[in-house]
From TrEMBL:
Name the record gives this protein: GMP synthase [glutamine-hydrolyzing]
Function: Catalyzes the synthesis of GMP from XMP.
Keyword Transmembrane helix part of the UniProt annotation: no
Quaternary structure and partners: Homodimer.
Single GO molecular function: GMP synthase (glutamine-hydrolyzing) activity
Keywords recorded for this protein, A-Z: ATP-binding, Glutamine amidotransferase, GMP biosynthesis, Ligase, Nucleotide-binding, Purine biosynthesis
Gene giving rise to this polypeptide: guaA
EC number: 6.3.5.2
Catalytic activity: XMP + L-glutamine + ATP + H2O = GMP + L-glutamate + AMP + diphosphate + 2 H(+)
Domain of life, source organism: Bacteria
Native species: Hydrogenophaga defluvii
Length: 333
């Protein structure tokens, strides 16, 4: 639409004016905010932007490839993909306490990103270094960091974020989404040509599957979880609610699969199985501070359960989480 096109023109002009002929680094996570920021800045300054995508090995099925296909393949943006999965899995080995896991993942993420950003800042022979760090900060983030969060007495979960990085790196900050609400960021993303499926995705936590595998994180668990979760999400997108015509993916605020590192007995064909359990989690919420578990249709749960058990060898039991927040949280860790 025309209003959005004007808005893009204005934002593009502002970025060009601010950046001039300098170089910009952006941390791309595959989430909505960093993706829209990348698409917008790329529209404005093209190859003066370099995206750094740190793959911690705790992403969903094919997620890393999808990010690369979109930004490098379709938008022709410069993207450096850092495959740090072995580093993350190595440091997580033997660690099962949720807060400790969160701190390891968050800390390593910052280290890996900083190392990459420092190289880009230094530049190479014949190529000057970057002077800006772009972030997908949106208006609600600006408000949140202003007060409410710091007043909270108890930390339930230490959130993974990258506050303070520009100062530490000695880079100037570029935040083109700072005045926008989430809905506006999504509309902007669609207007910039990002697929609606990407822009309207459920939120995904920074520590990724690291907080959806209970206890110790192992590659074997992550691989099983990725496949089970992909089936759940696929069926949520397939099943439509008759009354509204919407898919169950769109009718839920967040839905995912949790890996439980316990084994239970099952039977398959003539044989006994002794395999892992997963829990499906789907919630409806307006602010993620409180949430109700979603009353998914039985037909959908039945399909997901039978597909996971038949298609993912190693999982023989599927459960559905019927806990609301509070007292449960949305993620299990
Ligand atoms: P909980 O589990 O606290 O989650 O009810 C509330 C919302 O926050 C998301 N979440 C995170 N998001 N970094 C993030 O960016 C994190 O470390 C993190 N931990 C939880 C969670 O997915 C839900 O949407």
């Amino acid at each position: 639409d025309w209003i959005m096109r004007d808005h893009i023109e204005e934002a593009v002009a502002k970025i060009r004016e601010q950046v001039g002929d300098e170089e910009v680094i952006l941390g791309l996570s595959g989430g909505v905010d960093s993706s829209v920021a990348a698409a917008l800045i790329h529209r404005a300054i093209g190859d003066q932007l370099t995206c750094v995508f740190v793959d911690h090995g705790l992403l969903r099925l094919n997620e890393g490839d999808m990010v690369m296909d979109m930004f490098e393949g379709k938008l022709h943006a410069k993207v450096i993909r850092v495959d740090a999965s072995e580093l993350f899995l190595g440091k997580l080995a033997g660690v099962s306490e949720p807060e400790q896991k969160r701190k390891i993942i968050g800390g390593l993420f910052v280290d890996v990103f900083k190392a990459e950003a420092a190289k880009l800042k230094a530049g190479t022979a014949g190529h000057k270094g970057a002077t800006f760090l772009a972030q997908g900060t949106i208006y609600p983030d600006v408000i949140e960091s202003g007060g409410a969060k710091s007043k909270k007495a108890v930390t339930i979960k230490s959130h993974h974020n990258v506050g303070g990085l520009p100062e530490q790196l000695g880079l100037k900050l570029l935040e083109p989404l700072r005045d926008l609400f989430k809905d506006e960021v999504r509309e902007l993303g669609v207007a910039l040509g990002l697929p609606a499926e990407m822009v309207y995705r459920h939120p995904f936590p920074g520590p990724g599957l690291g907080v959806r595998i209970l206890g110790e994180v192992k590659k074997e668990y992550a691989d099983l979880l990725r496949r089970a979760d992909a089936i759940f999400i696929e069926e949520l997108r397939n099943f439509k609610d008759e009354a509204t015509g919407k898919t169950w993916y769109d009718l839920t605020s967040q839905a995912f699969t949790v890996f439980l590192p316990v084994k239970s007995v099952g039977v398959m064909g003539d044989g006994r199985t002794y395999d892992y359990v997963v829990a499906l989690r789907a919630v409806q919420t307006s602010d993620f501070m409180t949430a109700d578990w979603a009353e998914l249709p039985y037909a959908l749960l039945k399909k997901v359960s039978s597909r996971i058990i038949n298609e993912v060898r190693g999982i023989n039991r599927v459960t559905y989480d019927v806990s609301s927040k509070p007292p449960a949280t949305i993620e299990w860790e």
